[in-house]
Write a structure and sequence with these properties.
2 domains, 25 strands, 5-stranded parallel sheet, binds flavin-adenine dinucleotide
């Protein structure tokens, strides 16, 4: 396998897939390595965790994505180390591979900010494995509470950004509609969802109008907000806050931030904020030849020099742009500086309720129109026709009939939530 590829891409998320597609279309020989055999659509992970949608709607086998790309080889392998200076990667089974150009697109990992207990006890939400583990944990918790006459459920979501808001909103609506309908109104009355953040408001990247809208909707569906006070410890039975008070929770969901993972730390590249690589304007890593870093593991600046947020749209556009610069490298052309097209951002708060701030002018939408825009945008962005159809049916089912798409718990209910996720998605 060594030396037969012009480009090695590590990571098949938004950035890696966009780069591989662009290069594959031009006939460049690409090796695309990911530890999973599927591409996962992270913006809908919270829907998997809250049983609104099945895994098969958001995870698409990579060999299916690239079936028509003759020059793109997909390799399912965990990369254990990257030597940026050598443009070499070594997989967990000991194979070392090199290429003319290396693209590092391995995303990020949860940042627990050294909060005691968080890494051991909290549930992160950054992968299909995380989402199914959380979904299984929540379903088991409900079943356990249902077996006791006074059983109750408390869930704490840490982090009031889009992931935390979407997760807390969906959980509270599940209590309101699904638990009431499928378990009992009495159990629903004993289920509580808490949202905690050290900043005073949710969705700080949005306008105050959107923040107020989201806050009011979360309260309306029963989310208990604990804003302006940080979490100092995660315990088996909840969290301790900086003011000394406690919030009870059998499950603590961590949506509190991201950082670059160990692979980046050991790559030999200089790390910047969040452990990410401060890439040059053409998306290459400084001080080495032929290495691009894109997506959540990079600090990418816009044309004004301001760092862009860790978003799917940034990752996707940067992956595509890196590919065009790689083509320039291979053909003796000139690289161009990355220009980000800012389409704005949106967050789902619940059924019929979302906030959206569209385009550079930040056209604001709240409520049903934002909700419908959110559904349409996410449907369009999902990879694969089958996945889109599955998502659409799950949404119709869930938002109209309040019926959960996925309530199956694998294994005996007394067992602890599994460490591993589901078996890999099969190629369909
Ligand atoms: C819950 C959630 C909701 C979000 N919602 C939105 C949203 O609504 N809108 C939006 O724009 N953005 C959203 N984001 C952010 C967006 O999903 C990320 O910015 C985007 O996925 C980053 O893309 P990426 O390609 O850099 O990394 P990823 O998509 O994380 O992909 C990284 C890939 O690298 C692979 N990998 C990692 N380490 C290794 C290794 N050692 N060996 C082999 N493979 C490896 C992983 O398996 C993964 O497939 C959300 C993120 C989360 C977690």
């Amino acid at each position: 396998m060594e030396d037969s590829y012009q480009v090695i891409i590590v990571g098949a998320g938004f950035a890696g897939v966009a780069a591989a597609k662009e290069l594959g279309r031009k006939g460049v020989r690409v090796l695309l390595i990911d530890s999973n055999n599927y591409h996962q659509f992270q913006p809908l992970l919270y829907q998997v965790a809250t049983s609104q949608i099945g895994v098969s709607a958001i995870a698409r086998p990579l060999r299916s994505v690239f079936r028509r790309f003759k020059t793109v080889k997909v390799l399912t392998a965990k990369v254990d180390s990257v030597n940026a200076g050598e443009r070499a990667v070594t997989t967990a089974d000991g194979q070392t591979m090199r290429a003319e150009i290396l693209v590092i697109a391995v995303g990020a990992v949860p940042n627990f900010f050294n909060t005691p207990g968080a890494e051991e006890l909290a549930f992160p939400l950054y992968s299909v494995t995380d989402a199914t583990r959380l979904g299984t944990g929540l379903t088991r918790l409900l079943d356990q509470a249902d077996r006791k006459p006074d059983g109750s459920v408390d869930v704490v979501v840490v982090g009031g950004g889009p992931t935390g808001v979407e997760t807390a909103g969906a959980m509270a609506e599940n209590v309101k509609y699904v638990v009431r309908k499928y378990f009992s109104p009495e159990l629903a009355a004993r289920c509580r969802v808490h949202l905690v953040d050290m900043v005073p408001s949710v969705l700080t990247m949005f306008s105050s109008k959107s923040q107020n809208y989201a806050t009011e909707h979360l309260k309306k569906v029963g989310v208990q907000l604990h804003m302006g006070v940080g979490v100092t410890e995660v315990r088996e039975d909840g969290v301790t806050l900086a003011d000394g008070s406690s919030v009870p929770g059998q499950i603590v969901v961590w949506a509190g931030g991201l950082k670059a993972g160990d692979l980046i730390a050991g790559s030999g590249l200089t790390q910047g904020r969040g452990g990410r690589i401060d890439v040059d304007t053409d998306l290459t890593a400084p001080d080495v030849e032929g290495v691009y870093v894109v997506g959540d593991c990079a600090n990418i600046a816009d044309s004004t020099g301001a760092k862009l947020p860790q978003l799917g749209s940034v990752a996707q556009q940067a992956g595509k742009w890196a590919a065009s610069n790689i083509l320039a490298d291979l053909q003796g052309g000139t690289r161009t500086p990355f220009r980000y097209v800012d389409k704005g951002y949106m967050a789902m708060v619940g059924r019929g309720a979302a906030v959206a701030e569209l385009g550079r002018k930040r056209i604001q939408l709240q409520g049903v129109f934002a909700f419908l825009s959110w559904l349409l945008v996410h449907l369009a962005l999902l990879s694969g026709l089958q996945q889109k159809i599955r998502a659409l049916f799950s949404w119709l089912n869930g938002y109209i009939l309040h019926s959960p798409a996925q309530v199956v718990v694998s294994g005996p209910i007394e067992k602890e939530p599994p460490e591993q996720g589901p078996p890999p998605a099969s190629v369909t």
